[in-house]
Amino acid sequence: DTEVTQTPKHLVMGMTNKKSLKCEQHMGHRAMYWYKQKAKKPPELMFVYSYEKLSINESVPSRFSPECPNSSLLNLHLHALQPEDSALYLCASSQDWDGNYGYTFGSGTRLTVV
Amino acid sequence: AQTVTQSQPEMSVQEAETVTLSCTYDTSENNYYLFWYKQPPSRQMILVIRQEAYKQQNATENRFSVNFQKAAKSFSLKISDSQLGDTAMYFCAFMKRGRGMRFGAGTRLTVKP
Fold first, then answer.
1. Nearest Cβ partner of B98 from A45, A50, A92?
2. What's the CA gap between A25 and A90, in Å, rounded?
3. Percent of chain B surpassing pLDDT 70
4. Taking an 8 Å Cβ-Cβ cutoff, which residues of chain A contact chain B?
């Protein structure tokens, strides 16, 4: 298995909903990451799970909550989102803790907040 | 903070020709990593090439090569023998060990038949 699998591929949610995005890898990679990508923009780093701890980009609102149940799974819990949170959410993993060899990305979840 | 600049929003090239995409970055670090990723319409980010800053030799991967100028903080990507499948958004990325990868704004490359 050489993939990062993200589910669902598409998600439409209301501003009062609670939903979760799932990211899974079975490559034995040590670190995982969440990125947000707006249309025609580069991906922006949201969270890093490395060295068995979560690091949070301080600019990310608290309505986004990451969870790492085990080393191969990284969830992103969503609550009370705003329409401006609509974006492509990309998950990635790296074989080493620091990502020195680059990241393997999933195909993303296209999120629309209505 | 590190910044990555891609000054060419869009470029085009004829099939089988060569094209160079530019990237500059700003950092006070000495040890770091640089990457080029492509993102086709399928939206998955695909690693094209990787360069370690402490290595002077330019990285190459088949038709893809880089010109890494550490003093000038420049990291350009050359694509030789361009193919239609090379059409994509190309992102230059900077990474200091353990700090997460930061991307430039991207260059949209179109390969014309």
1. A50
2. 13
3. 98
4. 33, 41-45, 48, 50-51, 55, 57, 88, 90, 92, 97-108
pLDDT of residue B1: 62
Helix (H, G, I), strand (E, B) or coil at A75: strand
Q: Are strands B46-52 and B60-61 parallel, antiparallel or unpaired?
A: unpaired
Phi, psi of B11 (to 5 degrees): -145, 155
Asked whether the beta carbons of B112 and B12 are under 8 A apart, the reply is: yes
- List CB contacts (< 8 A) between B2 and chain A: none
Q: Is B64 exposed, middle or buried (0-12, 13-18, 19+ CB in 10 A)?
A: middle
Residue B2 has pLDDT above 70, yes or no: no
Instruction: Determine phi and psi for B84, rounding to 5 degrees.
Output: -55, -35
Q: What is the DSSP code (8-state) at residue B40?
A: -
Provide mean pLDDT across the span B65-87: 97
Q: For A49-61, write each residue's pLDDT tens digit.
A: 988 888 888 899 9
| pLDDT surpassing 70 at residue A21 | yes
Within 10 angstroms of residue A40's Cβ, the number of other Cβ atoms is 10
Q: How confident is the model at residue B95 (pLDDT cuts 50, 70, 90)?
A: very high
Mark yes or no for CB contact A99/B46 under 8 Å: no
pLDDT at A42: 95
Give the chain A residue whose CA is nearest to the CA of B89: A40
Q: What is the signed CA dihedral for A22, B3, B96, A85, rounded to 10 degrees?
A: -10
